[in-house]
Amino acid sequence: MNGKGGPMKITEKELKRRAADVERIVIESVDLSLYLARAVIDGQELMIADANGKFVKTHNLLAMKRRLKALVTCEFFLRQQSAYDEMVGHSYAANANTMEIPMGSEPLPEWLS
């Protein structure tokens, strides 16, 4: 994990080693087709990074789930934020338009692999 000023990180290798501690995985849709992932451990969200320390990102939601499903067995969630309020000039808190959708903890069906 990272003790520097940016977001706290956990590498995929460390994530696999600590799989039993992972409460859930949150895959965040940050753009039309860009996904980042976070692991929740002890109530703290940690950005998932590759062996080089770069955030794991994909352009396909199922590709992200497939990649992380090989490391952990917990439940997955998709987090989506709406930019509507920002676009029309409302000044609500950012989390007011955040939605999390459960994706389950089951492996992907073979036809999606």
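Above is the first protein from milestone M3; the second protein from the same milestone is given next.
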Amino acid sequence: MPKMKTKKAAAKRFTLTASGKVKYKKMNLRHILTKKSSKRKRNLRKSGFVNPVATYAIKKTLLPYG
């Protein structure tokens, strides 16, 4: 059976932690920043974690060797 291919778009967006969670960078911090509050921009800098239901699908289909 051939190797499964990793979806490269997903590999660029998601990283796996040691505990098995899927980490990603939050959106909306690229442009039009003047109308966003400092608190909102500060919270967008932090990385987000995918919920456990979607984590299974990402690890199974998009990142099979992650």
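Note on the second protein: DSSP finds three helices and three strands in the chain.
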